[in-house]
Amino acid sequence: MRLLIESLGFGIASGAIIALGAVGFTVQFGISNVLNITYGALMTLAAYLGYALLGAGVNVWVAMAVAAAAIAIASALLNRGLIAPLVRRGTGFVGVVIVTVSAGIIIQYCIVAIAGADTISYGQQAGSTVSGAGFVFTTSQLVIIAITVAVMLALHLLLTRTQLGRAMRATSANPVVARSCGIRTDRVTDLAWLITGALCGAAGVALAISTVTFDFTIGPTFLIYMIAAAVLGGIGQPYGAMLGGLVVGVVSQVAAAYTSPAYQDAYAFAVLVLVLMLRPRGLFASGAAARRLTRA
Amino acid sequence: MVLLVYLGTDLLAAWGLNLEFGVAGVANFAYIVLVAARAYLYAAFTLGPPAASGSFQQYIIGARLPVALAIILAALICGALGCLIGVTGLKRLRADYQAMVMLVISILATTVVGADSGLFNGNLGLSLIPNPLASLGDASRGWWYVALVAAACLAGWLALRRFTGGPLGRALRAMREDEDAATAVGKNVVGLRLAVQAAGGAYAGLSGALLAGFIGGWSPSSWEYVETLALLTAIIVGGIGNDAGVAVGVVIVPVLILQGAQFLPQFQSSPELASDLGWIVLGLLTIAFVFARPQGLVAERRPRHAPAGQDAAQAPPGGARPASTVAALIALPRPAAAPKAAGAAASGRPAALSVEGLVKRFGGVRAVDGATFEAEPGEITGLIGPNGAGKSTALALISGFLRPDGGRVRVEGRDVTALPAHRRARLGIVRIFQLPREFGALTTIENLLVAAPRQRGESAAGVLAGRWLWRRQEEELVERATALLTLFGMAGKRDERAGRLSGGQKRLLEVMRALMAQPRLLLLDEPMAGLAPALAEQLEEACLALAGAGLSILLVEHELRAVERLCAKVVVMAQGTVISQGRMAELRTRKEVQDAYVVG
Q1: Interacting residues of B553 by C-beta distance below 8 A, sequence separation 6+
Q2: Which of A97, A127, A229, B86 could pair with A139 in a Cys bridge, judged by C-beta atoms 3.0 to 4.6 Å apart?
Q3: Structural domain boundaries, residue B265
Q4: What is the rounded CA–CA span in Å between residue A25 and residue A200?
């Protein structure tokens, strides 16, 4: 029982990070109809940026904010310079995926060439722990959870209460109609990639904080969790990805606690495969975006 | 010498991947996992039990089998593994979604095999893997190994020519261009894909075994997901779908950039930096080619079919066609061509199509709600109704592209409700898409040839036996296709890529392709929509001639004048059910029909 509650706590903590990242991934797909594999490499970049900033004596949460801003810009540039032109010239879906994988590999090996392939660590002390009802959280875990909740709330308000949010949802549902209604979809898309890039950067640093040591493969490996979460929630659905992140985090942590941590990635993958086999459009909702990916 | 072995093994792997990705359009990002699996299996079968070698590495099996037996066993398991990965394709996911799932499989496989030290010694990997040529002395072995790899490449090349050079390759490329359209002419898309993945897996496996035997060691760092990208880059640079181009690509990409860079004098001191830069260059190269030259250095071949002696210009475009010519061209079976005067129903011949209580729900919407109607053989039956009446859904249910939630579909008395779409197409239920869906990268005549049913060259026997088994049939098909092209006034476009035809020509191509599939029941979904009057008239004439030749046609159309002119019987649908049927002239006077059209 104690093991269950403890791993549940771990699951919630890691679920928060997964949700943070998965929401960005899923919104990018909804807006651009592109599965952006570069997302994982940008998370790695954020983790290493955070590492460099920590080395320069910056506070870890400030580092997170700076990395989020930097990745936001990188993400917007990626869309402007690479993805949007490809989509405009009608490159096939597979071609776009290959390009995003290539871009990810370029970023990844630039990191290796500069920072080396060795594992590194933020070297943060776990700090004090807070416990209650059998759960034990470190303060940094609690801060990450709080940040995630705050970001999710902000995103919710953005999507439902602002003109930009409505334009984003309209573009996601049907870009052609949105454009003919006078929405400047290219600018909306740029802004969406900026915002999701910030989520990606924040998630990257949060991930680096929560894992003891990491190397340049941290992003692509974590991509498994984010994809599982996004697919579980119905890809393209921000709320689905939030819930999906929590589910994937809890399932993988609890299952790993009862068997072996070596297979934690495999459990996230098992969730992905199960959803693909049983309900490829996701558990919670099947929006227009998910329908674009599956037939019959 | 080392580079030559790498070149050969990379070439084999790239050919296999090109088979899957370039020819059949399956972006298998988990491809390197197959290479790896074979390497591990080869190692595990040839190595002795772990304890015998001092237990410094742990692994499963350890059977110490002879090299040849190990290679065969590992090949079988790899083929199965290839099919297993192919199963992800069964759920009909969009190509990029599928690619992403495979990428995840690849990342995961490396992590799990690396973390589990009991399986294949974890991240440290296996070493002391026996060399297949161990009996030769160390000194002379190297060049013999190059010869071995070269022989494997030669065999691989010849097998590839067999596999993709004939009708099977054409069917695979058609599938790559448009899966639904390939299904509509009777291609078993799932089966084809599995076959390709098994064959691609075999190439991956051969490559992996040769590589592991040469290096003598194998570990997770040899097969990270980026290695698949290296092969993909080779294909994209060399030429997607072109095996000779891929060979060029392999020389440039994995060999020169990834392996060769470390031999440059500048990088002698830091080989790791060289390989990092190699990967960066590789990524840039891929992106550059996708942008600037997506077809690669050497583009896919465009086969030319020599004219069979006819003069293309002779055919009067859209002229009157004697019914017998048309019937001969589409190879209608005799009984269908029997004179209609005898009275089809009276002679006991079953209805061409009989639909009973058909139901299809989308969520809460009942798109088709208990529709029941029949179509008579050798006649054009119209299916009309306001938008949203369920006509197109009914058509999709009849052709098998959708599964009904209830009811039966019978064609010439045979219950086809449970058959998948490609099986129905082979029985002669051929649909024509509302928007033309040509196989763009195939030539016009290839578009027709691929549709012919029962091609020997597509079967396993045809691939194994080679050209002599299917050459005669192919010649006949070329002749029939050429005659069809001539009939529709498109002989001049024979060797043009279909993607470059005009909208109207694509529509005609769609019709010709359906006829090539030897239909018994043709399903037309608003064929007149958006056609210029002259072309529409040509199409109407063709329909009449075909029905005159004994073909049954179900026509969904909004252009009521055309329906009145063509159809003996018209079925009216509204809100998922049949509300009326009869001759068009009668229907116009009926209240329920008028209500449906006015109220919607």
Answers
A1: B375, B379, B380, B381, B521, B522, B523, B524, B543, B546, B547
A2: A127
A3: 225-301
A4: 8
Mean pLDDT of B121-148: 68
- Chain A residues within 8 A of B229 when measuring between CB atoms: 98, 101-102, 105
B288/B373 same-domain check = no
Q: How do residues A67-99 score in pLDDT, each as one tens digit? A: 999 999 999 999 998 988 888 887 778 888 889
What whole-number percentage of chain B has pLDDT above 90?
Answer: 0
Chain B residues whose CB is inside 8 A of the A94 CB are 21, 25, 27, 95-96, 99
- Which is nearest to B360 in space by CA: B392, B319, B327? B392
User: What are the CA-CA distances from residue B483 to residues B308, B393, B476 (Å)?
Assistant: 10, 34, 11
Are B183 and B254 part of one and the same domain?
no
Give B 208-227 residues with CB within 8 A of chain A: 225-226
Q: Which of residues 20-79 of B touch A (CB under 8 A)?
A: 21, 25, 27, 29
Say whether both B158 and B289 belong to one domain. Answer: no
Beta pairing partners, B356: B408
Greatest CA separation for chain B: 96
- Three-class secondary structure of residue B360 per DSSP: strand
Number of domains in chain B: 3
Distance CA B304, CA B460 (A): 25
Please name the residues between 251 and 270 in chain A that touch chain B, using a CB distance below 8 Å. 262-263, 265-266, 269
In a domain, B205, yes or no: yes
| A269:B108 CB<8 A | yes
Q: Which amino acid is at B335?
A: P
Confidence at B340, pLDDT banded by 50, 70, 90? very low
- Closest Cα partner for B174 from B428, B434, B445? B445
Residue listed under structure tokens 């990092």 = B276
Token reading at B293: 């030259």
Task: Tell me how long chain A is.
Answer: 296
Mean pLDDT of chain B: 77
Residue B405 and residue B420 share a domain: yes
Q: Over pLDDT 70: what percentage of chain A?
A: 93
What was the pLDDT predicted at B440? Answer: 83
B454 part of a folded domain? no
Q: Which of the two residues, B243 and B383, has the higher pLDDT score?
A: B383
B-chain residues within 8 Å CB-CB of A280? 91, 93
Report CA-CA distances (Å) from B185 to A97, A142, A178, B177, B516. 29, 59, 37, 13, 9
Query: A78-82: long-range contacts (C-beta < 8 A, 24 or more apart)?
Result: A78/A36, A78/A38, A78/A42, A78/A103, A78/A193, A78/A197, A79/A32, A79/A189, A79/A190, A79/A193, A80/A190, A80/A193, A82/B287
Residue type, A81: G
Q: Give CA angle at B311 (B308, B315), nearest 5°.
A: 115
Looking at the structure, tell me whether residues B40 and B105 fall in a common domain.
yes
Q: How far apart are CA B416 and CA B400, in angstroms?
A: 9
Q: What is the 3-state secondary structure (H, E, C) of B368-433?
A: EEEEEEEECCCCEEEEECCCCCCHHHHHHHHHCCCCCCEEEEEECCEECCCCCHHHHHHCCEEEEC
Query: For residue B72, is pLDDT > 80?
Result: no
pLDDT, tens only, A256-266: 888 777 778 88
pLDDT in tens, B143-163: 777 788 888 888 888 888 877
- With residue B524 as reference, give the H or E element that holds it: strand B521-525
The CATH class, in words, for A2-293 is: mainly alpha
CA distance A27 to A43: 16
Measure in Å the smallest separation between the Cα of A86 and chain B Cα atoms. Answer: 7
**Phi and psi at residue A121, to the nearest 5°:** -145, 145
State residue A194's pLDDT score: 94
In angstroms, rounded to a whole number, what is the distance separating the alpha carbons of residues B145 and B216? 13
CA gap B208, B548 in Å, rounded:
60
Q: Is A73 part of the contact surface with chain B (CB cutoff 8 Å)?
A: no
